[in-house]
């Protein structure tokens, strides 16, 4: 029986089951751990700054060399239920090389908390960063968000909910419509109701005027991830937002992280152009 578009439950599950589609997924996670540790060893940073009482309500801040430079905030993926900011510290490197500050967020995870709590955590972290711009020596009017997978959803969501003023977002293999997530195996941990999925879908929310978007999904992604990217891009354009879609034809859901960490990739160059103007 078809439950979403032309997919049965089994077919929809496969569209979003990254571990089924990427056979060597553990090798990627192991390398992300290694690369993240290497980046933290070589760059001074403020580790595990708390923005709440829970151990996961924390962020890492990598400062640029000079005062008054932009800030890029990265939100990790893991389908709202796994992974950690430490696995993605290497994504800061291309931006630090251009004197751009970088913060990486952790947040509480499902099923211990619900989607609204996760979004609230990310919004709270962003508000704290904005409030501490002077102390952290970055430009409060030049905050940019980047997220991967569920993190791209959260970046788009807190931008749309106006947690703090941001200049733009970059979504890597993002989820912008939660209805297929609600209907898939992922909802066993998320417990989304139809209303939850609607209210937390960036596709259904108005982005503040002037916020720019850069969207990317690897060419080896499932049809659903490519549809999510293209549908969200079209929706943002219809509401007057500047949107750039960058292709990464050889990338899949995990190797897109390598593309994002590569200073010479088309994705990174496009993001740097957007930030530096």
Walk me through this protein's architecture.
By secondary structure, this protein is α/β, with parallel strands linked by helices. It has 13 helices and ten strands. The protein has helices at 9-16, 18-21, 25-42, 93-96, 115-131, 133-136, 150-160, 179-182, 187-190, 194-199, 223-238, 256-261, 266-276; strands at 2-4, 7-8, 46-50, 58-62, 69-75, 101-105, 138-148, 168-172, 212-218, 243-248. It has an eight-stranded mixed β-sheet, with helices on both faces. It has a two-stranded antiparallel sheet with strand order 1-2. Helix 5 packs across helix 7 (150-160).
Rounded to an integer in angstroms, the radius of gyration calculated over CA atoms is 17 Å
With strands numbered from the N-terminus, the spatial order across the biggest sheet is 3-4-6-5-7-8-9-10
Count of helical regions: 13
C-alpha end-to-end distance: 49 Å
Order of helices and strands: EEHHHEEEHEHHEHEHHHEHEHH
Outline the biggest β-sheet: 8 strands, mixed
Oligomer: single chain
The total strand number stands at 10
Shape: globular
Low-confidence stretches: none
- DSSP strand content: 15-25%
Helix content: 40-55%
């Amino acid at each position: 029986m078809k439950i979403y578009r032309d997919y049965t439950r089994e077919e929809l599950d496969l569209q979003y089951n990254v571990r089924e589609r990427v056979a060597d997924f553990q090798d990627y996670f192991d390398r992300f751990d290694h690369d993240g540790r290497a980046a933290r060893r070589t760059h001074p940073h403020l580790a595990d700054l708390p923005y709440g009482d829970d151990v996961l309500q924390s962020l890492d801040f990598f400062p640029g060399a000079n005062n008054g430079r932009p800030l890029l905030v990265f939100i990790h993926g893991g389908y709202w239920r796994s992974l950690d900011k430490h696995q993605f510290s290497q994504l800061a490197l291309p931006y630090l090389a251009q004197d751009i500050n970088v913060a990486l967020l952790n947040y509480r995870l499902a099923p211990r908390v619900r989607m609204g709590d996760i979004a609230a955590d990310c919004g709270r972290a962003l508000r704290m960063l904005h409030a501490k711009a002077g102390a952290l020596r970055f430009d409060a009017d030049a905050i940019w968000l980047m997220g991967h997978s569920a993190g791209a959803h959260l970046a788009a969501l807190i931008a749309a909910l106006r947690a703090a003023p941001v200049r733009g977002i970059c979504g890597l293999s993002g989820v912008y419509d939660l209805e297929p997530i609600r209907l898939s195996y992922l909802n066993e941990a998320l417990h989304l109701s139809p209303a939850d999925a609607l209210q937390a879908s960036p596709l259904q929310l108005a982005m503040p005027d002037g916020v720019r978007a850069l969207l990317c999904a690897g060419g080896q992604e499932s049809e659903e991830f490519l549809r999510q990217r293209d549908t969200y891009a079209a929706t943002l354009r219809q509401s007057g937002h500047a949107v750039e879609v960058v292709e990464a034809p050889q990338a899949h859901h995990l190797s897109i992280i390598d593309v994002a960490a590569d200073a010479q990739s088309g994705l990174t160059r496009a993001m740097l152009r957007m930030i530096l103007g």
